[in-house]
Amino acid sequence: MTYKCFDVSIADNIAHIVMSRPEKRNAMISEFWSELPDIIRDIDNNSKARVIVISSTGPVFSAGIDLSMFANDVAGPKDKNDPLFGASFYENVKRLQDSFTAIEDCRIPVLAAIQGGCYGGGVDLITACDMRYGTEDSFITIYEIIVGMTADVGTFPRILNHLPEGVVRELAYTGRKMHANEAKAQGLFNAVYKDHAAMMEAVMETAKQIAKNPPLAVYGCKRAITYGRDHSTKDALDNIAVWNMSMLIPTEMMEAMQAKGQKRDGNYADLPKRTHN
């Protein structure tokens, strides 16, 4: 299938989603917000891969949301005195938020590979991913404050999972750039690489390691980590006990142990296809 904002390829159980509008700094136009969740959900629902890598093209990872959308797609009625203005704006923002929630709700891990600038909506995107990797020249900026708005598509509830509150407040209030080495030191980036080629080689190697593991166990890890992040320790312990009670497959465990002993890749079942979105 052809997309306006992305190129998608799948090989060796790894889906690679590439933002493909470098001439426009990969700004997030209207089509972006429908294509991305459709791609993520198609891969997940139909068990097409065991891990997803999101990367970009050109000197900038993403310039964030295309500001022309505020005139055309986001605000709805243009007159703020229109009684439908608030309701329309709310529904449209919820639609944009859902585009990145699709990443978090996806059963399989999603890795982000970031080169150059990651502005505004790009930060929303990468904070919804499981892991983040950057080039030495990469940086993030919560750019919304510079254009007179409050970030509302996902940055704040998610970036607080990765950075100290005081640091988040500084980034949000100032709009300053957080460069790659600082992002790694603060825990937002898993690793930093010299250039795009080195980063992609390393990220794909990590994706291969993930894809070799039992998909149901990886899904269980993602679900347990996200649940534990958002709930008390007591509730999280109970949740994982119920998960393993329901989902643990002895034959998969035996295959994993035999594969390790025989120094071969395991032969594991794919996740079942979802019959609903």
Characterise the protein shown here.
The protein has 277 residues and is α/β, with parallel strands linked by helices. The chain folds into 2 domains: 6-211, 2-enoyl-CoA Hydratase, Chain A, domain 1; 215-261, Lyase 2-enoyl-coa Hydratase, Chain  A, domain 2 (Orthogonal Bundle), CATH 1.10.12.10. It is built from 11 helices and 9 strands. It has helices spanning 30-45, 68-74, 85-105, 121-127, 155-159, 165-174, 180-186, 196-211, 215-230, 233-247, 250-261; strands spanning 6-11, 14-19, 51-55, 110-114, 117-119, 131-135, 139-141, 178-179, 191-193. Strand 2, helix 1 (30-45) and strand 3 (51-55) form a beta-alpha-beta unit. The longest helix is centred in the middle third of the chain and has 21 residues, at 85-105.
**Radius of gyration using CA atoms only:** 20 Å
Q: Largest beta sheet: what is the strand line-up?
A: 1-2-3-4-6-9
Q: Please report the total strand number as a whole number.
A: 9
The CATH class of the largest domain turns out to be: Alpha Beta
Count of helices? 11
Flag low-confidence runs.
none
What CATH architecture of the largest domain would you give?
Answer: Alpha-Beta Complex
Q: So what's the overall shape?
A: globular
Mean pLDDT: 93
Helices and strands, in order, run as EEHEHHEEHEEHHEHEHHHH
Major sheet characteristics: 6 strands, mixed
CATH superfamily of the largest domain: 2-enoyl-CoA Hydratase, Chain A, domain 1
Query: Which structural class do the helices and strands define?
Result: alpha/beta
Number of domains: 2
User: Between the first and last Cα atoms, what is the distance in angstroms?
Assistant: 19 Å
Work out the helicity level: 40-55%
Classify the beta-strand content into a percent band: 5-15%
| CATH topology grouping of the largest domain | 2-enoyl-CoA Hydratase, Chain A, domain 1
